[in-house]
Amino acid sequence: MPRGPRRPLGPGLLLLLLLPLAAAPGHRGAEGPWEGAEEPGSARAWLRAAGALSRRYWALFSCQVWPDHCDEAAADAGPGGWSLPGLGQRYLDVLSTWYRGFQERCPGGDCRISNNFPGLESDLSGRLHGQHLARELVLRTVRGYLEMPWPEKALALSFHGWSGTGKNFVARMLAENLYRDGLRSDCVKMFIAMFHFPHPKYVDLYKEQLAGQIRETQQRCQQSLLIFDEAEKLHPGLLELLGPYLERQATEGCSTRPPRTLFLFLSNLGGNVINEVVLKWLRAGHSREEITVGHLEPHLRAEITESTDSDFGHSRLVKGNLIDFFVPFLPLEYHHVRLCARDAFLSQELPYTEESLDEIANMMTYVPKEGQLFSTQGCKSVAQRITYVLP
Q: Of the four, 96, 112, 132, 361, which is 20 to 30 A from 355 by CA?
């Protein structure tokens, strides 16, 4: 199954992607864009054909975005009711939905922000495997927060689970769909604990630098996304520094909308207890999709607060209930790994067989010994293993 659109496409890029589809056999028609062109294959013929197609695609797109200004001829986009192929129509629908929302947000606002919720929903549904809880929680909470007119505090989500289960993947999806430039946006900051803050003796310097970056990002952007990877390894001083940014802020008397900030904390902490609960649930004969947050959250919270290997659970963020949601990422099973392998082939536009997907999935290590249900690495390194099965 093709991956959902990762980011809204500009009209020009959209046309380039769709030109081959429209020019394929079955989409030319008696009065298609090729009629009357110069010798097939000449540069002038290609340019003339591209221009004709562009006008038709733009007519269809403009009718969806500005229906009040759409005349009957433009709606048909030519004799015979010429229309987009299926894949082209799918991209056009997502693009026009996003663009209508973008028109409402951008004038006088922050044009770096896209908030493409249809794209986010498509990505979470089509590209994130085995994580029904994360998919539902992330989409509902993020959309609800960003559509709230007067948020009282920043939104703080803490992702927990084994490595390779999709925590970084979802963080990247959020950046790609909420911001025009994705992770490269100057409204998005990602910090990796052991990379950006490796030496405890420099914690005072780190605190000054971190506070400065948060302040500058919030002043620059109406909506900020701050990601902290390896959150369980953050120094206690840094965790305490973040506390005031997550507390409720007074909004009475504000003449302008307060800036919105999303904090994401990514951690392997609690992964073992999540796996234990899921294993017991499956062995009891229940379906994986029947697991709810209520089944996992008490166990996850207890594991986080009682851990002696991390200061995260003893910090003001957790003790002061400043984390809005602890999002559990479930362990991935064999068929999830196969889906990840399929996506990796598709992303590189490589052919695959069912046998090649099985071969890659069988390269992974599974636990427990009795039953071997869960991949110890999730889907991590699946993409790199493709080369081993290529002819």
A: 132
Partners of residue 375 on adjacent β-strands: 366
Kindly list the distances between the CA atom of residue 24 and the CA atoms of 28, 48, 84, 152, in Å, as whole numbers in the listed order.
7, 16, 12, 53
Sheet with 188-192, side-by-side order of all strands: 188-192, 223-229, 260-267, 155-160, 325-328
| Structure tokens that stand for 385 in this block | 């293993």
Mind listing the pLDDT tens digit for each residue in 185-237? 999 999 999 999 999 999 999 999 999 999 999 999 999 999 999 999 999 99
CA-to-CA dists, residue 192 to 214, 221, 282, angstroms: 15, 22, 34
- From the list 224, 222, 191, the residue with the least C-alpha distance to 209 is 191
Strand partners of residue 188: 225
145 C-beta neighbours (distance < 10 Å), count? 18
Within the chain, strands assigned E span: 155-160, 188-192, 223-229, 260-267, 325-328, 366-367, 374-375
Strand partners, 265: 158, 228
